[in-house]
Amino acid sequence: MPYNPDLDRLRTEYAARDARLADSDRYSPFNRANLFLQQGRQRLMLDLLQRRGFAPLAGQRILEVGCGAGGVLSEFLWAGATPTLLHGVELLPERLHKARQQSPHLPLTCADGQRLPYPDQTFDLVMQFTVFSSILDDGIKANLAAEMRRVLQPRGLILWYDFWLNPTNPQTRGIRPAEVRRLFPGCRAEFHRLTLAPPLARRIVPFSWILAALFEKLVVFNTHYLAVLQPGQDACGTLEQIIRLMLY
Ligand SMILES: C[S@@+](CC[C@H](N)C(=O)[O-])C[C@H]1O[C@@H](n2cnc3c(N)ncnc32)[C@H](O)[C@@H]1O
User: Fold this and answer.
1) pLDDT digits over 204-237, tens only?
2) Of 142, 151, 172, 196, which has the fewest beta carbons less than 10 angstroms from its beta carbon?
3) Can you tell me which atom of ligand 1 is nearest the CA of 70?
4) Nearest CA-CA partner of 128 in 164, 176, 160
5) Nearest CA to ligand 1 atom 13
6) How far is the CA of 129 from the centre of ligand 1 (A)?
7) How many independent structural domains does the chain possess?
């Protein structure tokens, strides 16, 4: 894989970010706004997995690409995933070290997701949580998506959670459904817009959990998409093909 400066930018950015947030409780479950956002995502995620026939999680081969310090993997353990089948890949050794400290029994690997160290079609479920938005280089995003697709079983599921809007952080770039569809051609996709804008949630939740829930229901202030993608032709993809055939 040729050298790409975006990976170095990412390393520097995460080192600075970890130092900045070292004493912060922003991502602690004792932070009520964080708990609100996390639980909203978990409810919808579990619901989607169940509807797609991926519950219970026990016995399923699962991979998180860009697992960071292992927060999402812990949620999957809590939801019943089998520890020996719950894999994580992370680019940055310091972050993976934290994940290993937290979950020493999980198969975790330090690697670039552009070259996943697994044979084709290894996993039932492959997921990414806020990894793609942290990458600015289109080529890396395309390579990551292709690798996620390669290691997925033909009847498997890709779980996607990322934001489409974050105007305050120039080190990230939001991703909308059209781009996700382009990254995973030939997949059927279902998108749900959720997660009340975190700056709003941090103001409203300490004052009223119910008010925050009402704001989230309005959807207009929600900054993320939770999506599930499965190999097979997308209705939008089919429509696109018909239009192309008519135009050419
Ligand atoms: C915003 S963090 C999210 C961590 C975790 N998914 C979570 O939600 O808690 C994004 C993570 O993706 C990792 N990452 C970015 N590019 C990667 C790549 N090419 N291969 C593996 N990991 C990568 C970063 O190092 C970082 O830890």
Assistant:
1) 999 999 999 999 999 999 999 999 999 996 555 5
2) 142
3) 9
4) 160
5) 66
6) 8
7) 1
